[in-house]
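User: Predict the complex.
Assistant: Input components as received:
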Amino acid sequence: MTVRDANTALTRRHFLLAGSAAGALASLPPIVRAGGSAGRVIVIGGGFGGATCARYLRRLDPALSITLVERDPQFITCPFSNLVVAGRADLAAITHSYAGLRAAGVEVIHANVKSIDAEAHRIALEDGSKLPYDRLVVSPGVSLRYDATPGYDEAAAHLMPHAWKAGTQTLLLRDQLQAMADGGVVVIAPPANPFRCPPGPYERASLIAGYLKRHKPRSKILILDAKDKFSKQGLFQDGWDTLYPGMIEWVAGSTGGLVERVDAATRTLVTESGFTEHTAAVVNFIPRQHAGAIAHRADLVDDSGWCPVAAHNFASTRVPDVHVIGDAANAGAMPKSGFAANSQAKVCAAAIVSELSGRTPVEPSFVNTCYSLVAEDYGISVAAVYRAMDGKIAAIKGAGGVSPKTDDAAFRASEAAYARGWYASMASDIWG
Amino acid sequence: MIKHVLWTALLGLMTCATPTVLAEDNLRDFVLGSPCFNCHGDGSPKGNGIPAISSYDAAGLAAALKAFRSGERHSTVMQRLALGYSDDDIEALSAWLAGQQQ
């Protein structure tokens, strides 16, 4: 697309906006910039959801003013962080700067958001500055619940890393595994649903098993699960039998897997009303989760701990002119995944563009494709296509599902290669 | 080590994408077609090891998606995804994707 084309599109856009901008002027005096359109959108959170939304708002309507407010100077992805845990990738490989978004015309501010004043249509940053908006997109991801399991608080996370937010926690878990003696037991304790990245704990078990098989072959992994079943379960368990026989034991929640309390100092987990205590060399305790903190402060959260939204545009059902996307949203049948957040962000961006210009609402369509590595050359996937049906996001019947059961190593190797391609393309789509 | 070099190369490539100004009247096609970018790239020649959208014109994309959907063409994940789209969806998103090529 040439510069001339861009200018043509801009001119046509101003023409189309002429009618609606006049109406917007009356109610939104501080927001209309001289020579610009009536649209100012702020996005809170620069992860898979927020960064995608900011980028595509900008692409869909270059006349909009888009500001992304993100706490951290760089984003470290949870996807592929299990390769870092297993010592097979550097943190640098999963770290992305915001230079690409800036180059695309998004204003990026690194700050903590203190509060959202929905009535005045503005947010306050921790330094006291205030930013006005026409529409606000909140994509804060998850907060870990340090109140859900007795003994597991922020201090405990330094001894029993959750590694469920990528960065120093990822490296802590990696370093503990590398320091462990051969013959040690590694406990992974996944939470009850819903939580970020449903197949993540089991991919982690797989890749840690790969590390142990190479370096500490007498060691074992014990998965103490809060649940009785998990994502891609049959595929994971087939892979474990093939690749890591006898190394991974999974205990379902109802048969003794549910961890009731922990003692971080001794790396002990208590199950079955105190009848069983597990002490391990390394403990990866993944706590229960709810929507990110700003969503709670802004009253976007209901009793479920997540943010209810309208299926067609991800507008909050609690606070007007605020949209919530990604892991923090209750998105019906969609899982809390990076791909899902990206797909929701695109629908949300299209909806905001059409609504701000007074156009017909766009019928949504969503996709999720999640790859997991059982080994570096053994990939499996789950996919689905979603629509809004009766006001709820539902998977289209007859489509989607998990990889087939097969002994075909080439098929698994293809999916492992596609997992890497997915990561590279996805990162490019969002932060590139 | 080789993997790290590959990663670095891939991450380097990611910074090269140029933004496209989308037409005004195709938000529905955008919603249908843009999730394809997540694996296949955004229309630039690189597919990151996954077939690139730029290898196809609109008719070729639609034919490929229908062949995946019917199972006539072997796939890993594409049949599962293509089954979620009608003929009309496939024609629309294929035309839109073909128009995004850089």
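The CA atoms of residues 40 and 48 of chain B lie 7 Å apart.
Let me know if you want any component modeled separately.
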